[in-house]
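BUG-303 | component: ligand-complex export | severity: low

The export step for molybdenum atom jobs runs without errors, but we want the raw record kept on the ticket for reference. Input record follows.
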Amino acid sequence: MRKPHPTDPQWSDVTPRAMFVNRRALMLGAGAFALAGPATAATPSRFSVTEPPTERSAITSYNNFYEFGFAKEDPARHAGKMKTDPWAVQIDGLVDRPGSYDLADVMKNQPLEERIYRLRCVEAWSMIVPWIGFELAGLLNRVGVQPSAKYVAFETLVDPETMPGVRGRNLAYPYVEGLRLDEAMNPLTILATGLYGDPLPNQNGAPIRLVVPWKYGFKSIKSIVRISLVADEPPTTWSAAQPSEYGFYANVNPQVDHPRWSQASERRVGDGLFAKRRETLMFNGYADEVAGLYAGMDLAKFY
Ligand SMILES: Nc1nc2c(c(=O)[nH]1)N[C@H]1C(S)=C(S)[C@@H](COP(=O)(O)O)O[C@H]1N2
Ligand SMILES: [Mo]
């Protein structure tokens, strides 16, 4: 990670002054605010689902975070060693105010919301996760997206010392992901810094990760160190590794099967071994909010 430089823009430079001052007063009133925010300031959201959240112990022990290994228990076992403080996020490409922003600074003036979302993994299991976070659109608007930007690219930390999967080269690293700009700007798309009212555990992508609830889980990239605004569709880790199985869009779609298994139904983590599988919903149940983004597109072709 690049070291912050004294001439780099500060987060306060890209936050409208009035908002900065008001929020600051608000946050000071609310008391101390740890890095990446506990939930004390989080408010509920109209975007939350009403299904009961999956147990915290399952959300934090059954993970995909290949940098720490392939097995579902590897991230909880190994990710504790990842250093998440201090943390900088580089924002670059087609933006008015590129820079390396200190996350603690960004979070100081950032109101947080609780968003209870369905998470549907491409491996056909799902969970209900009470995230704490904020809309990606707000952050992009503050750094100033230039008109030529059409996509947003994201990159995860690479630290061979603390990441056994990186040392073992089980995938090409850094893990990279991308969204079309309109997908990134959709109010459902959030950057999460917490879950169940606490800062994110490392295995879930601390200190900051993407959550795109209408897409398969692999789009929701963890432990982000770089966000780039770009003109062309950026490469993504899973579609580069296995293009016939994983596409750029990765919208949850019960009608388009993975070449090796059906996507019509899913197992809800925590339901128990003999529980009935649940029907997978189009766009993971978020069709009212996002179907319009794909009007006229052949979703079997753009999978
Ligand atoms: N950097 C990185 N991000 C990642 C992954 C990964 O291996 N590395 N796995 C993805 C996959 S496949 C899923 S299903 C979700 C899982 O998120 P969770 O462990 O918080 O439930 O994270 C996604 N983000
Ligand atoms: Mo996944």
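Assignee comment: Attached the raw record above. The domain at 13-291 is CATH 3.90.420.10 (Sulfite Oxidase; Chain A, domain 2).
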